[in-house]
Amino acid sequence: MRNAEFDRQAVLRAAMRAFLVKGYAKTSMADLTKATGLHPGSIYCAFENKKGLLIAAIGQYHDDRSAQFQQLFANNNNPLHNLKAYLDGIVQECLSCDATQACLLTKALSEVGEQDEDIHQLIHRNLHAWQQGIEQVLNMAKSQRLIPADTNSQVQAQFLMMGIYGLRTFGHTEPNAAVLQPLADKLFSSLLN
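User: That's the sequence. What structure does it adopt?
Assistant: Structure tokens below.
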């Protein structure tokens, strides 16, 4: 059997959008074939099954979000200004009310992570890598004396991640800039104390 040729990143991003819109359980193979443009046999050949496609989509999501995060912090601007821009970007994603702007990691964790150890571990590794990225930014801010030297970067990164999860969740019920932006601003200002 020959392998089907396709743009893997494009297929994974299309699958990612399908999973974000309908959730894992409600996304059928028909939805995935329509979204990706692949025949069911090609999906099974390349990814084994729907779970394999979700795992690959989570990997692509991590790669895309990591590149976006690194690009935002690649400039030589003040790391706190970049972190503020990052939080503001999350607010804009929440305000879009676009299901494809949600976090695939948290959506998959809440839907299937507790029932599937492979997916749980993959999401855990991805979230830990995200936390480490935030810790690096905070350590940079400490070295530039932008935040107190005694700031525990690990705890502060965990606090920020908790706040971002909350902001995204709250954004589903209150997609209002007058509500979400002050919350993001308060989250950011917690760094400065």
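Residues 73 and 123 are 23 Å apart (CA to CA).
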